Every structure is written in C-alpha cells, then in structure tokens.
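Homework help board

Subject: predicted structure for assignment chain

Our instructor gave us this sequence and asked us to write out the predicted structure in token form, then describe one feature. I got the tokens but I'm not sure how to describe them. Can anyone check?
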Amino acid sequence: MRIRRFVRPRLVRAGVAAAASLAAATACSKAPKTAEAPPPAAVEAVAVRSPSDGAILTTTGPLERRREMTLSFRIGGVITALNVDDGDVVRAGQVLASLDPAGVAAAQTQADVEVERARRDLARDQALFDKGFISVQRLDDRKSALRAAQARAGSAAFDRRWAQLVSPAGGVVLQRSAQAGEVVQPGQAVLRIADESSPLTLRAPLADRDVIRVRVGQSASVRIDGLPAVVPGRVSRVGERAGPQTGAVDVEIELLGAHPLRSGQIATADISVGAAPTTPMARVPAEAILEADGQKAFVFVVDKDIARRRPVSFGGFDGDDALVSGLPPGARVITAGAGFIADGEKVQVVDPKQLNLASAGK
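My token output:
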C-alpha cells in the first residue's frame, strides 16, 4: 500500500510536467516569427571632383600621318600593273602602278603630227608673206596655230609620264582602291600612301567651350583602349573654323618619341590645359542633382553607408557635369538609385553593372 501511495504522486507530477512542456511547445509554435531586415538599397556613387580636375580635356579621334597622299592617274585608262598591296613598304620613286600605254602613245603621236603640220603651214605662209602675197594677220594666225599644237604636244607628253604612279615618298601603303585590269577615270583614287618620316598625329573635335582653353604646345597623353602604352604628345595645331554640322573645332596632337601606335587606329587624348578660370565650382555628374531651382539644388551624400540629403549651390551644367559648391572634395555623391532612397536611409554602394541587375529584379 505504501508503494501505491508514493507512485500516484510521481505519476501526477510527471503528467503535469509533460503538460507544461506541451503547452510551452504549443505557445512557442504559435508565437510570430521575427521578420528579417531588408538589405540596404543599392546605389552608385562617385567622388566630388575639385575645380582643378577640369584641367584635363579628353577627346577621341583617328591617328594618321601628317603626310598621307591619295594617288591617282591624271588620265583614264586600263590598269595593266598594280605592284603593291595594303601594308606594303615602299620607297621614294618606286613605280607602283601603270596604265595601258597604247592609248597614251597614240595621243602623243597625234600631237606630234599636229606640231609638224603647223610648222609646215607657217613656213609656207612665211615665204608668201615675204613676197607680199598674204597679210600680216594670216601669218600671225599660223604662228598662233603652231604654239597651240606645241602646247598640246607638251600636254600629251605630260600625260604619258603620268601613265605610271610613282611613290612620292618612302612609307607604307594604307589602302589600295583598285585592281589590275580595272578601267579607272582621271582622278580616281588608286592608292593611299603614308609618309613614314612625317609625325603621327591625332585629330579630334573639341566643343567651343573647351577649345578656347587649348593652346599650341600644351602637353597631352595618348592611349588606345586595350593597350598598356601611354604615348606623350603635344598640341601642334588648333583649328580656326568650326565644323558646319557639329560646331566642334578640330585639334591636332602630335605624338612624340617611339611608340607602337599606327595610322588608322582610334585613340583617346588627355590634354593638360590648366584650370578653367570661369569654373570655380566643383564638378559632379549631372544625374546627381536633385530638385534644382535657380542657384539651389540638393544631392545625396554617402556618409558611412548612410544617405544624407545635402543642399548645394548650383552653378549650371558643363557638358555631362554639374557645377556645385558646398561639398568637400572627395565626398561621395549618389548618381544612380537616388530616386528610390530617403534621407537617413542605409545604402550599399555597388558596381554600376550590379545596380542595373538589381533594378531589373534579377
């Protein structure tokens, strides 16, 4: 009986403990789960550039030799020989192409016959004039006819010499525009030659607001995307006339020293022009400006991963940049993603490609 008296309380206590555990488990299962915090908004940001950063002007254009010549025949005819191709090295005086000489020789023969006939006519009329049978006017006409025939003969001889294309300088063939056997017209381009002794230059357009800061002799750095070489150069010419379509002015930069660059490549030049006296404000990308009103505007600045809305003095736009004051040099302004954040919100600065994927929902 004592055993029963002690067993029951133990069973009761065990049941109570089990019920309490089940109730606790049930309560925990019914408790709401804590929501996870959303990730910071993805934005793109760039550092504020000081006014001195405007001392570099960047432009892009083709490289070419200062002396590049397009060769063509003075007369038309059939090309019987074309001895060079693109990339071939040529020397000064080398015969590069020839026309069928038959037509040129026939023209030369005809001109010589006309000169001979004009001389006979003049000699006959001179004898008649000496005897008083013809007038001075007729004798003068014979003399004029002889001079005209001699001029035509000289022109035919000149054409005969130009039935061959001769390289005017040592260099390289940039382009061949015809083939042997083709019929070409007078002045039709056949070959383009670059004089390798002339300097390699970059000719590129600059906007009128930039070209006024460029002077002959200013230094420049020339590069090609994908190549590590950066070639020094200097401004050798500044155009005096703007293009009728673009309004831009061409600037020529001469490359200095030995380099691996070649004619026809597209290069980018950074020209050192000094700070612009009319631009005392710092530069930020134009897309960073918010709510511009007169000389006032706002930007978002990244401050320890927090977006802070800051007022700035707005000086207008200069190309792809906006001119502002009121921001310390080196401050990071948000350029992409500013329309989706609020003042004081935490942000994450990411690469532009990643930002594009995030905005697309990928």
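Reply (TA_rk): Your tokens look well-formed. For the description, you could write something like this. Residues 101-130 form the longest helix (30 residues). That's the kind of observation they're looking for.
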